[in-house]
Specification:
Layout: E1 4-9, H1 13-17, H2 21-36, E2 41-47, H3 49-60, E3 68-71, E4 80-85, H4 86-96, H5 100-115, H6 123-139
């Protein structure tokens, strides 16, 4: 499979939060495409809470930061986009007792799974997406983010 993955580090604090952050994000995206049995193109934007809050407000009508946003491509053949907010990712990782690197990997995979058609609006969809995420994390030799979650 041949996937085209671009990682844009807009907030340089990502580099101190996660060593080799571009490689970590790229590996997680590749693993998600592999799990889906497809290749694809994605731009991963590593930014801060302020930018994700703006994107969330502009595109979803929710004026608050969130951990990850996924935007499908505007035209076939173009990359989709996944944006992650450092402050929110750090806070969630700390609360969950995970490393920022592991949480970033999970959220990049989550965002890419959205781009390839997964969703979590209904219980069955959510369970299938969680199982795919657990397999991706296993492929990356990282902890299952759903273990111990009720």
């Amino acid at each position: 499979m041949d996937s085209d993955i671009e990682v844009v580090v807009e907030d340089p604090a990502w580099r101190s939060a996660v060593p080799r952050v571009e490689e970590v994000a790229r590996r997680a995206a590749l693993a998600a495409f592999a799990e889906a049995g497809t290749d694809g193109a994605v731009t991963v934007l590593l930014t801060g809470d302020r930018e994700v809050k703006r994107l969330n407000g502009d595109h979803r009508g929710k004026v608050k930061p969130t951990n990850v946003l996924s935007f499908p491509p505007l035209h076939p053949g173009l990359p989709g986009d996944v944006a992650l907010a450092l402050g929110t990712v750090r806070r969630e990782a700390r609360v969950a007792g995970r490393s920022v690197m592991a949480h970033l990997s999970h959220l990049v995979a989550h965002g890419v799974l959205h781009l390839v058609g997964h969703d979590h609006l209904r219980a069955g969809e959510a369970r299938r997406m969680e199982q795919a995420e657990a397999r991706i994390m296993r492929r990356l030799a990282l902890p299952n983010p759903w273990r111990g979650v009720a």
